[in-house]
Specification:
Layout: E1 7-12, H1 17-26, E2 32-38, H2 47-50, E3 62-63, E4 75-78, H3 84-95, E5 100-103, H4 113-120, H5 127-132, E6 134-135, H6 138-146, E7 150-152, H7 156-170, E8 180-185, H8 200-203, E9 208-209, H9 217-228, E10 237-242, E11 249-256, H10 264-274, E12 281-283, E13 301-307, E14 313-320, H11 324-338
Parallel strand pairs: 1-2, 1-4, 2-3, 4-5, 5-7, 6-7, 8-10, 12-13
Antiparallel strand pairs: 8-11, 9-10, 11-14, 13-14
Helix pairs in contact: 1-11, 6-11, 7-9
């Protein structure tokens, strides 16, 4: 595909935060042309009715999924709830097998169908498609993404945690088993649905852990760590926390040195070399801690490496914007790779600060 050619895009589930973020980012994409937007609850309304901050954009009216004409789009982003997604994508692929799809739900992230059933409470409804889906952590699976027609876009916690961990495990510099991940997320990570637990009075002026020892991103993190570990089984300790902020993920990973690693400086050197040419992953200088405000509104991931007080251990601090690199931005990054476009197209963004 040429850098001048337009890509017709359909967005399923455009009324959620990830749908709005897709449109914000695609507005400045030189190849993007929005073909249709679905949101069953708001069918017949405009995006300006749902998201006034997008009122200046010339966008098609929202329609139901049943009204969507797949032939109008080259690439389809799917922001529907898990479970529902399998049925819809199966229909799209059956009727229009030439389409490229990036799914932002959890439906095509887990390669093992039994693991999916265990964590999501029902059997996978599209096992054939799951077998061909590519896990869309771009910096790790870029070559496979370039050849794929279906991408399972990673979760926000998983993206933020895996980017610092995977290169170190592949290099044998840290123990793959026994990793502790303490992660914090902004409220948009819980979606836009009306929930009592997400009311301002319930969230502001406090922090709380949730889904302790049972968050679904744990199995997704383990899947990729197992791959990096040569298929050897591992378990991680992952605890998410909800922070009184709109955007951002901060993951603090506690690791044990292994192999030839003598100190945290060896880990810093490995990550610096691995991501030295990457446009969206940056390793901070030794001693500099990344913060969510440093990546707000961008597709960036920033990683800091520190010595632990406990001998033989180190601490990795990783930050992303959960709506961008943790969702819609990485989805566009994957689209760019799938379509042979410059990977940074539409994503050359500077952090919103303060």
């Amino acid at each position: 595909m040429t850098t001048q050619q337009k890509i017709r895009i359909g967005v399923l589930g455009a009324s959620g935060y990830t749908g709005a973020e897709l449109l914000r980012l695609l507005h400045n994409h030189p190849n993007a042309e929005i073909a249709f937007l679905t949101a069953n609850r708001y069918a017949g309304q405009t995006m300006a009715d749902v998201f006034p901050h997008l009122a200046f954009m010339d966008l098609p009216k929202l329609i139901s999924i049943e009204e969507a004409d797949w032939s109008q789009a080259d690439v389809i982003f799917c922001g529907l709830p898990h479970g529902t997604t399998q049925e819809v994508i199966s229909k799209v692929m059956a009727e229009a097998p030439d389409k490229k799809i990036v799914d932002l739900s959890a439906d095509f992230r887990l390669a093992d169908l039994d693991t999916y059933a265990e964590w999501y409470g029902h059997a996978h409804q599209a096992p054939d498609l799951q077998a061909e889906a590519v896990y869309g952590l771009t910096e790790i699976h870029r070559a496979d993404i370039a050849k794929a027609r279906l991408i399972g876009n990673p979760g926000c916690y998983t993206t933020t945690s895996q980017l610092p961990l995977i290169p170190l495990i592949e290099a044998g510099l840290i123990e793959a088993d026994g990793i502790i991940i303490d992660a914090k997320s902004g409220v948009t990570g819980a979606g836009r649905a009306e929930k009592q637990a997400n009311l301002h009075a319930e969230i502001s002026e406090g922090i709380h852990a949730y889904a302790i020892a049972k968050h679904r991103h744990a199995c997704e993190i383990e899947q990729e760590i197992i791959r990096a570990n040569g298929g050897k089984d591992v378990r991680v300790c992952f605890t998410p926390h909800l922070m009184p902020m709109n955007r951002g993920i901060l993951a603090t990973c506690y690791v044990t040195l292994a192999g030839g690693a003598k100190s945290h400086e060896d880990l810093h050197e490995c990550l610096s070399k691995r991501y030295g040419d990457e446009p969206f992953v940056h390793v901070t200088p030794l001693g500099e801690a990344p913060a969510t405000r440093h990546v707000r509104g961008t597709n960036q991931c920033r990683i800091g490496v520190f010595a632990d007080r406990v001998p033989g251990r180190a601490i990795l601090v990783s930050v992303t914007d959960n709506l961008v690199k943790g969702a819609s931005g990485q989805a566009i990054q994957n689209m760019n790779v799938m379509c042979g476009l410059p990977e940074t197209a539409g994503l050359d963004l500077v952090a919103m600060f303060p």
